[in-house]
Design brief:
Chain lengths: ~170, ~120
């Protein structure tokens, strides 16, 4: 129920931000739209820990700030390599283990890897990620595991590891 | 006075964003194979797009326009790694091996037995 309310609240906020026309008619239409969308989502049984991950709310912004700083550093590193006349790259594949229990955590980790220039996740299977790094030392930094630990901490702030069936509301 | 400062900040952000987009384009041309080119493309849709949107948000001020710009940035940050993964995984599943600059296959380092401690 809390997830359904969070979804409805989130949709209302997005409607208000995107609309900009606060007349009774438009607001009523917005409320009706939100109601219909939430009803369909509930009926499709997609309101779960993956689509509405409110259990991550506490650490979410801290993680984004850390990831943002990493993205800036990685961008500068890759830009230096591209502009350097000698093109100092040494493409390497790394096979890494993920320490996240759930699929959502693994996807956040894999997407964070891809979002950081210099590393791209190529394949994610059975809790192992195959990463292409633009240079060997870039991949070495990643396999030191700080990002992995931070995503795992993000994941374990609320519910236990999700079961294959997913939790029901 | 404040308007001038805001304009200057906005332009600096936009120029910095352009720099990363151009760098991404040059990287796309200079890097040797499809995997390493994805790293260059990654620059345009992270810091390139981010700095552009920051520059435009400074122009927008505390308005709904800025809120919409930030929503766009969030969408980009969620969709672009997903698209990149789809591309990388399709190329990998198709059997394309990553290459070094000299054309030899690049090595695979297995770190799946645990995080590196050193």
């Amino acid at each position: 129920m809390l997830r359904v309310l969070s979804l409805a609240g989130g949709l209302v906020v997005i409607w208000l931000l995107l609309s900009g026309h606060y007349t009774p008619l438009i607001n009523t239409l917005g409320l009706v739209s939100v109601g219909v969308v939430v009803a369909i989502a509930v009926r499709m049984d997609v309101v779960d820990h993956e689509s509405v991950p409110i259990h991550m709310r506490g650490r979410f912004f801290g993680y984004w700030i850390w990831l943002g700083a990493e993205i800036v550093k990685a961008n500068i590193d890759v830009a230096k390599r591209v502009w350097s006349p000698s093109l100092p790259i040494s493409p390497t594949l790394f096979r890494l283990k993920t320490s996240q229990a759930g699929e959502l955590g693994q996807v956040i980790y894999a997407n964070s890897i891809t979002l950081t220039p210099g590393t791209v996740s190529v394949s994610l299977e059975d809790g192992e990620i195959l990463v292409h790094a633009i240079a060997r030392e870039v991949g070495d930094d990643l396999s030191a595991g700080e990002m992995d630990r931070r995503v795992t901490r993000l994941e374990v702030s609320g519910i236990p590891a999700p079961t294959p069936e997913g939790e029901r509301e | 006075m404040i308007a001038t400062v805001l304009d200057a900040v906005s332009w600096l952000l936009l120029i910095a964003g352009s720099f990363f987009v151009i760098t991404g384009g040059i990287g796309l041309l200079r890097l040797p194979d499809v995997y390493s080119r994805m790293h260059a493309a990654g620059m345009t849709d992270t810091l390139g797009a981010g700095l552009f949107i920051a520059g435009m948000a400074v122009q927008g001020g505390f308005t709904l326009v800025t809120a919409k710009l930030l929503i766009i940035l969030v969408f980009i940050l969620f969709t672009s790694p997903t698209a990149t993964y789809a591309l990388a995984n399709a190329v990998w599943s198709g059997g394309v091996q990553p290459r070094r600059r000299d054309g030899t296959a690049c090595e695979t380092i297995d770190r799946s037995d645990g995080p590196l401690t050193s």
